Model the fold of this input.
Amino acid sequence: MENKISYEEAAKQLQEIIDKIENGKLPLDEAVKLFEKGKELISICYNLLDQAKGKLTEIKEVAGKLEEA
Done:
């Protein structure tokens, strides 16, 4: 799965997968496939959050330098 989706879309898809798995009415093979897709979506979410954190840290550093000037 490519990281071409937004955090919000990945989180939405992940919630849909969780709901389906928690329902408990899936065949085992389908539940395993959804679990694997869920792991990919979690990875995408973590990567997007890390990117956002990096950008925010960078902005805070620049803002701090501007305040000191």
In short: The chain has two helices and no strands. The first helix runs from residue 7 to 23. The chain has one domain: 7-68. The chain has a mean pLDDT of 92.
